[in-house]
Amino acid sequence: MLEVEQWAEIRRLHRIEHLSIRAIARRLGLSRNTVRSAVRSDKAPHYDRDPRPSCLDQFHDRIGEILVEWPDINAVRVREILQPEGYAGGLTILRDYLRSQRPQQVQVFRRTVYRPGEIGQLDWARMPDPVRSPTGDLLPVWVLILTLGYSRVLSVVFSFGTKLPDFLRAHAQLLAFVGGVPHTLVYDNLSSVVAQHHGKEVIFNPQFLVFSERYGFQPHACTPGQPHEKGLVESVVGYVKGNFWAGRRFTSLEDLQAQADHWRDTIANVRIHSTLHERPIDRFAQDKAALMPLPNEIWIPPDVRFVRVSSQGFIHVDSNEYSVPAILARQQVSVHLSATTVLVYHDHQIVATHPRCWGRHRLIQNPTHVAKPWSVQAGPASPQPVNGLELPAKARVTVALPDLARYDLLTQEDGHE
Q1: What residues make up the domain containing 372?
Q2: Hey, which end of the chain has fewer CB within 10 Å, N or C?
Q3: Do 77 and 35 lie in a common domain?
Q4: Is the Cα dihedral 50, 51, 57, 61 positive or negative?
Q5: How confident is the model over 276-317, as pLDDT tens digits?
Q6: Residues 198-236: pLDDT tens digits?
Q7: Is 413 a member of any domain?
Q8: Nearest residue to 210 (alpha-carbon basis) of 198, 193, 196
Q9: Other beta carbons less than 10 A from residue 321's beta carbon
Q10: Count of CB atoms situated within 10 Å of the CB of 21
Q11: Which residues, including other chains, have CB under 8 Å from residue 364's CB and lie 6 or more apart?
């Protein structure tokens, strides 16, 4: 049964603090259905029925004494104390009454005031709709968002992938945009950042630590289950989806990023921020002046794989196969991956270029790679390379014609005898 005070508090939390039904239910210890009904009802609850007597009524004062002496005592122990005194009720009614008598534990979050250059928050978010990849596939797309604590300046980088190389590449682009490095950067528990938690101890991904050392910032991983610790970027996710993504179409990842950059510079960072009541861009000068400098060279760690070419002339990368010149069959090559391109190197020379495929189990083939640029024929082997590539061993084999004169000589000798 909902009390008027509870009804009023539910509506205040929903209307003023904008808490969700689930959050209000958790805070007040009520069911979600009860909270939902209170939110929908403009009238305070009113009950005309006379209260039914309860088996606990005569024990209210005694229970009050017990709680004064032992505030955290559980219902089982209270029943054991009351039973010799005549209590014959059950545990459920006793638990409900104890819950109503104990003060509710309410988490209070204070608004944090950040100093210029002090902090930035980053997080991935998946966008509502797919975008066409360079190979023509409609694929899910993610956005990595950076928000600076003092100015609330934000920037976004979109990606088809969220693995460590994709994360570090997008991360470096975001820092390049703001033109400096916050002293502390806050992350959710991304596998690219956090290897594992041991209680309050955080073990960071070693490869990510190399990146953080290069840029000089202090990484901070949020406590699991505490999203308020990165509330700055959490609120921006909804803003990006509702104020940028909605009502727009994108023909490619490049088109998406170009539209996002224009929105960032002409709308997002020049609006009046609802919390600061200022434009983020107007506070950005102070923020930027306090940021640490970027490295001398903007460092985007390369995503390089070393693979062996199959006997059919293909390399296997992230579940997809890409063609290379057939002359490289069974040789080792290095593959350099960007967000949109696959470059294949052999002996420091580019031997194949493909659009990067973000789908799975696809075959990406250049028709010119199929033909073998050599022939095995009679005569001495030619050691000359073809198109700058060294020929495989089988292309150097000399196919020598037999000396038929030797057979004539043998025949003559046999006939003479």
Answers
A1: 303-395
A2: C
A3: yes
A4: negative
A5: 899 999 999 999 999 999 988 766 667 788 899 988 889 898
A6: 666 777 888 788 888 888 888 888 765 555 555 577 778
A7: no
A8: 193
A9: 17
A10: 17
A11: 135, 320, 321, 322, 323, 342, 354, 355, 357
